[in-house]
Design brief:
The chain is an all-alpha fold. It is built from four helices and no strands. The two termini are about 15 Å apart.
């Protein structure tokens, strides 16, 4: 799952895959802006077949938190 998320983020913003860990903060460490977050959330939804509300996505702070959230969603 981490590798797929890395690919999505790298396709949306200018960051190298080796810079992304499960502890990476979406806004601070990876430098995603609000528009980037929307693009990433749309791609995550497509890739994993899930639906994430804007409010829920905004509450997710790290890549690890995102993976936990996706894993907990019904598929």
């Amino acid at each position: 799952m981490l590798e797929k998320i890395k690919d999505i983020i790298c396709n949306c913003v200018d960051v190298e895959p080796d810079e992304i860990t499960d502890q990476s903060k979406l806004l601070g460490d990876l430098g995603l802006c609000s528009l980037d977050l929307v693009m990433v959330s749309v791609e995550i939804e497509k890739e994993f077949g899930v639906s994430i509300s804007a409010k829920a996505f905004a509450s997710i702070k790290t890549i690890g938190g995102l993976m936990e959230y996706i894993s907990a969603l019904p598929k």
